[in-house]
Amino acid sequence: MEIAIASFTVAFSGAAAPGPLLLTVMRESAGQDLRVGGWLSAGHALIELPVVLLLGVGLLRIDTNLIMPWLEMLGGTALIAFGLLTLRASAAVDASAFAGTRGGKLTPLRLVLLGGITSASNPYWTLWWLTVGVAYIVQALILGPLGLLVFYISHIAGDAVVFMSVSALTSKGGRALGSRGYRALLVVTGLALILIGASYAASALRVV
Predict the structure, then answer these.
(1) How far, CA to CA in Å, does 61 sit from each of 48, 57, 73, 132, 146?
(2) Is 91 contained in some domain?
(3) Cα distance between residue 141 and residue 135, in whole Å
(4) Fewest CB atoms within 10 A around its CB: which of 19, 37, 57, 170?
């Protein structure tokens, strides 16, 4: 029970912090519903499953100081590109964006993939798992495979609660704002992703 509570709480606080995936949840949820947050959270959970398994069986033994600059550069570049695409999408927004659909683009598969890619593109997500995540997994493994399972389920449950709650709130706000407000939301989130990506890339260049 202690493992479950700790895992859920840590995941909850981490998911609620501003970051690429949370910004993506907000952007994609405008004019939609909480299911968007659920599918994005599913993608996030899927990308975390192999990480938990690898750490659990002791296969992940790498020097974070050595690879961190490269993770920052790759992740930063991906986030900048994603931010630019978001800005481009903002120019095409009209009233139809709030009719309840987006031309079939918001498919569950697309959202699951987007959730996984956005998570993996964040270098600090990797660093978190190689530091805080490792510590919690070590504690969970005291109970063996069952402990690892409880840790993983509790962790993704905390993420899902946050992302679906944010998605539900943003969906209501998106309908109230209208097309102009939604365009502004896309611009703000696009610029935020670019700034986050640029900070990662700049940090990597200072080290390399």
Answers:
(1) 17, 11, 21, 15, 23
(2) no
(3) 10
(4) 57
User: 87 in a domain, yes or no?
Assistant: no
- Quick check: 39 pLDDT over 90? yes
- Structural domain contains residue 76: no
pLDDT of residue 111: 93
Rounded to two decimals, the pTM is 0.70
Domain span at residue 25 reads 2-69+96-177
**What whole-number distance in Å separates Cα of residue 76 and Cα of residue 197?**
4
The residues near 163 (Cβ < 8 Å, ≥ 6 apart) are 15, 21, 22, 25, 37, 38, 40, 41, 44
Q: How many domains does the chain have?
A: 1
Q: Provide the 3-class DSSP secondary structure of residue 1.
A: coil
Q: Is 182 part of any domain?
A: no
DSSP 100: S
CA 19 distance to own-chain centroid: 7
Tokens of 133: 């995540």
Burial of 206 (0-12, 13-18, 19+ CB in 10 A): exposed
**Highest mean pLDDT range out of 14-18, 78-82, 160-164, 169-173?**
160-164
